[in-house]
């Protein structure tokens, strides 16, 4: 072939080239999925959201070494009037051991004295003290990981605890790499003047593997137009991406651009970057084919600018980075001078500051490792951190992910899991984080600038109106509601309703073991309101003082027969296969300061709850009304 | 066995426990090495320094597409008086093609016009223009990677370019993991009340793999004293480290601490950390054995606090982190508005600021990728960055490594490679970075606060004294010299000295092709001084204007016959198997501001050059006098 020069006339800025090329690729790439063993899934990216198969703990478990007792047997015990428990009134338990019926409390080993008559106790035990209720950490059916999540070692532990041994992940993109050039030789080849040792392809191969792809490096190809054409054409059928190295500049033997024009479409040839100008971005057989320059530094920069982000897009993977950042602690953390303490925190960027919300502090709460974005370490010499103070957070999640996360704090609903699952799927790189502190807790967080949105369902007793009166009363700054869903509240009971519970009155008969929600939860507000209206005193409800923080935890307690009834939403009852006695229809909305409506993650959030897919998924769960979801309600 | 409780009375602060345990372990662990293929070495840690087998380029190579010419044939060509080169006066070359004798310059394709008589040129070519001299990027025998360096994709490319296909790396630590507890079951096992799904060991296994070790997870062991004793005893023989999970707290069935006391020595039991108090740090058969608590969060924190840093110590590996930092640019960077530019920089922490020194900007300089700590990206809309201005650096080296690096800028000597190799070996976590800009350049960098030390060999013509007069003259701030080495300077010529060069006078005979060092280099100062003393004009030296920046590059030019002679040190001549005509004995010392003498990396540096091992290695190279090396010279 005649030597001819291949001068490109103008070059395109990097960002423009990337945008142009990626816009084209986005439409044609196909995310493939495969199933792998959880124990081999480190670093892989979840293909879909993963839901727990089992609860953890699987049973009511002792949180201490000690004895399991019936709380009512201990009533009246005190320092001055100790009680002796006979052998049939207690069972020795270690931490993690099941606490079986009829026992419903644990007394710590330190607080008992063994005598020949039995065990002496000097204080009464509160029902459910020192017991980790079934599902405290993970509730069966609960979402453990969203889709597009890169699996960490801690996630593997929690997946296994939740009974998941196999997992659907995004398939690793397979990339063919062709070194070209008649002068290049293998590193162990025979060297003569003019030889260039081929090394770029090995660098690419390793960069691809590091980015979660699979690099397939082919032996060097001679500068032969037909040979290169044949090989690239074949590879564009068999692989997800092809890299052709060298032959992308304007030298006389640089065939790559001609080959790619013949085989497909060259989107960009030459970018305004130094080093690394001679880059070719093409599409062949609906696959991305990238021509990179031969000089090692240009090759590296070209790869980093185009191949690396493309691979991440195809593999739904972002690099994970361990770093630290300073964040404002959202609630007071008291710590003892006796030890250094590791508090798991969720971190969000709200406005211009990072906010770290402490999570459950128990050592058994494995899910808190998964939910957390990092640790706040409280020094042994420190008594703690005041709310609003800054502290250093050791992140184990990517800071960029945190910056693109919609921070939701408030009332719990299963639709939050669905939104968290749909977000990164529809808007790659964006996430939802939700923390469940009840409706009032959510509004307080919003006021303190710790969240973007607060999901609430608060009935105003005076007006009979939901949510708006609370927002008006509490906020000075312009704050609106994003309409969420209408949903059914009721009493959840075991399948077949064996105690024949038909109304709230029945819960006060002294036999039904009730399990309550925590103060500030909208469900608790509703329950208390109904009790007052019916003239029933909380003392008449057995188990009123036993509080759970989510609908699913209440449902799990009923399902496992550690309670007979609890208030909750229809979807939670359905998820746990419980019967449901409808009590009220309520409005579950998202309070949001107006200035946050412009944030891209909030916009994405609104688009999701307006979408048909969202409505379809809610229909499948049952109990939701999605009319007007996503519209803005002003007071 | 009778149920008994195993109360530990006091707990130790984390840092104290770690220090106590690691002090004990440091004496017994043995760094094992193995040889692997370079293409499979990603993420591994070099066992020793790696030196180049070949130079890169392997020959004088064209840096442009164009024609290779003899510079003297082009003399006089201009716009008004163009010259025609006949077919035998040039050769068409592409970028990377060899430029063979007698050609010694390249003219770019854009600057020539092909006519039927020959090629028309309108400007003369300077000798060696647009030629990448042999060894420009890598010189055979030069150190490519120091020991204890974690291998990146870019390193693999450069290793292969330098002819290295196999590499000695630190062997991955092998860790046995034993889950224990009669109640635990496998994730796919039969679940009954009281069952706990075993998941910590899988979390550990993956954390170990991520940290560069190999996790071997054994099936769960029942709570049986003799069984646990047998398994742990056997594992402590076969593995580098053992983790026993659960059984480390004070529960009734927690045998681990008793087993470890019987088998070996328990150094720490219980640390002041929450969650994660019940940790056992022991030694069995000279191997670390760690007992970790069963609760997942405690297990995670215990692992991160003790097992993770221990593994890194054993594997000589630190986590790599990609992050950005702000640094002061040490020299003006001019960039064109035509493109975005990636400038490789070396980053150092000097005093209280980070300083980024730009490296070679050529696209062919693969070693610059290895030497660099990151990129400074100059935006397409920017004309560049002024010296001293702050710029954002995208790091691809760990920031902590950068903070523990002694930054050396100045004259080049092979002993710098030896120090860089010895530093992380003798002082794990500490590094030396050296940039070669000549003696005067080094002193200027020191003055601008860009380096900790400047290696210099500057003869004061007035006093005949080396180095001290320059330091006195240039520095206001108290600055001293760390005595380096005495070394021999001379003329390097080809083996057998075919041109019979015996003195500097001979270099002026008009036939000898000389290759010079850059202005400001001590060797250049010495050469110019001798020329003046001999009354020889630089114009009489053929090749005086051809400048190289290191001794090794000069030696490589002579060895490859692209020059006949050059000034340099004996060790460089020996490394390239050249003959050597001694000219002077000189003093090569390190200028250092007094306040830096307190820095740990400077102290470590001094200890190294005082050490017997250092002296022994210099003796092997020849040409060095190490008397008094490491002592402080004040003016």
TrEMBL record, chains A, B:
Enzymatic reactions: adenylyl-molybdopterin + molybdate = Mo-molybdopterin + AMP + H(+)
Keywords: Magnesium, Metal-binding, Molybdenum, Molybdenum cofactor biosynthesis, Transferase
Cofactor(s) the protein requires to work: Mg(2+)
SMART domains xref list: MoCF_biosynth
Domain of life of the native organism: Bacteria
InterPro entries found in the cross-reference section: MoaB/Mog-like_dom_sf, MoaB/Mog_dom, MoCF_biosynth_CS, MoeA-like, MoeA_C_domain_IV, MoeA_C_domain_IV_sf, MoeA_linker/N, MoeA_linker/N_sf
Database matches in CDD domains: MoeA
Gene3D superfamilies documented for this protein: MoaB/Mog-like domain, MoeA, C-terminal, domain IV, Molybdopterin biosynthesis moea protein, domain 2, Molybdopterin biosynthesis moea protein, domain 3, Periplasmic binding protein-like II
UniProt pathway annotation: Cofactor biosynthesis; molybdopterin biosynthesis
Gene Ontology biological process terms in this record: Mo-molybdopterin cofactor biosynthetic process
EC number(s) on file: 2.10.1.1
Annotated MoaB/Mog domain residues: 176-313
Entry GO terms, CC: cytosol
PROSITE patterns: MOCF_BIOSYNTHESIS_2 (PS01079)
Single GO term (MF): metal ion binding
Summary of the function given for this chain in its UniProt record: Catalyzes the insertion of molybdate into adenylated molybdopterin with the concomitant release of AMP.
Family from the record: Belongs to the MoeA family.
Designated name of the protein: Molybdopterin molybdenumtransferase
Species annotation: Candidatus Allocopromorpha excrementigallinarum
């Amino acid at each position: 072939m005649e030597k001819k020069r291949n001068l490109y006339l103008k070059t395109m800025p990097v960002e423009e080239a990337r945008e142009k090329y990626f816009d084209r690729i986005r439409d044609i790439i196909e995310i493939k999925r495969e199933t792998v063993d959880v124990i081999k899934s480190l670093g892989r990216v979840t293909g879909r959201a993963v839901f727990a198969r089992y609860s953890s703990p699987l049973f009511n478990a002792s949180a201490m070494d000690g004895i399991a007792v019936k709380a009512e047997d201990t009533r009246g015990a005190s320092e001055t009037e100790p009680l002796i428990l006979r052998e049939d009134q207690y069972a020795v338990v270690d931490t993690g051991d099941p606490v079986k019926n009829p026992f419903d409390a644990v007394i710590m080993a330190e607080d008992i004295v063994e005598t020949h008559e039995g065990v002496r106790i000097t204080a009464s035990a509160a029902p459910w003290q020192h017991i980790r209720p079934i599902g405290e950490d993970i509730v069966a059916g609960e979402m453990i990981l969203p889709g597009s999540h890169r699996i960490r070692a801690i996630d593997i532990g929690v997946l296994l605890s939740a009974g998941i041994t196999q997992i659907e992940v995004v398939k690793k993109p397979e990339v063919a790499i062709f070194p070209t050039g008649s002068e290049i030789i293998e590193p162990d080849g025979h060297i003569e003047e003019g030889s260039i040792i081929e090394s770029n392809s090995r660098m690419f191969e390793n960069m691809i593997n590091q980015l979660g792809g699979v690099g397939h490096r082919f032996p060097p190809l001679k500068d032969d137009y037909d040979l290169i054409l044949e090989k690239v054409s074949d590879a564009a059928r068999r692989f997800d991406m092809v890299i052709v190295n060298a032959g992308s500049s304007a030298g006389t033997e640089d065939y790559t651009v001609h080959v790619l024009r013949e085989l497909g479409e060259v989107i960009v040839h030459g970018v305004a970057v130094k080093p690394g100008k001679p880059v070719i971005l093409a599409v062949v057989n609906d696959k991305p084919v990238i021509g990179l320059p031969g000089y090692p530094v240009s090759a590296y920069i070209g790869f980093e600018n185009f191949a690396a982000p493309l691979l991440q897009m195809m593999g739904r993977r972002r690099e994970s980075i361990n770093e630290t950042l300073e964040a404002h602690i959202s609630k007071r953390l008291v710590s003892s001078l006796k030890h250094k303490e590791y508090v798991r925190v969720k971190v969000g960027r709200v406005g211009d500051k990072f906010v770290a919300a402490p999570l459950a502090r128990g050592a058994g709460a494995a899910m808190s490792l998964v939910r957390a974005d990092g640790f706040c370490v409280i020094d042994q010499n420190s008594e703690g951190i005041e709310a609003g103070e800054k502290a250093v957070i050791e992140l184990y999640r990517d800071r960029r992910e945190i910056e693109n996360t919609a921070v939701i704090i408030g009332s719990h609903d299963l639709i939050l899991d669905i939104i968290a699952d749909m977000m990164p799927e529809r808007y790659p790189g964006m996430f939802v984080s939700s923390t469940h502190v009840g409706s009032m807790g959510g509004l307080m967080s919003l006021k303190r600038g710790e969240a973007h949105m607060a999901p609430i369902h608060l009935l105003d007793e005076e007006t009979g109106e939901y949510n708006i009166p609370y927002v008006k009363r509490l906020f000075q700054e312009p704050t609106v509601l994003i309409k969420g869903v209408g949903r059914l509240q009721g009493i959840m009971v075991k399948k077949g309703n064996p105690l024949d519970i038909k109304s709230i009155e029945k819960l006060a008969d002294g036999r039904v073991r009730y399990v309550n929600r925590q103060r500030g939860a909208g469900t608790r507000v509703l329950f208390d309101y109904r009790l007052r209206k019916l003239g029933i005193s909380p003392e008449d409800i057995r188990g009123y003082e036993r509080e759970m923080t989510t609908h699913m935890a209440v449902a799990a307690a009923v399902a496992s027969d550690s309670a007979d009834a609890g208030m909750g939403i229809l979807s939670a009852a359905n998820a746990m296969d419980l019967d449901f006695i409808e009590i009220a229809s309520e409005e579950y909305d998202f309070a949001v300061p107006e200035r946050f409506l412009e944030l891209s993650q909030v916009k994405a959030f609104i688009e999701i709850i307006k979408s048909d897919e969202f409505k379809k998924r809610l229909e499948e769960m049952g109990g939701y009304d999605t009319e007007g979801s996503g519209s803005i309600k002003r007071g």
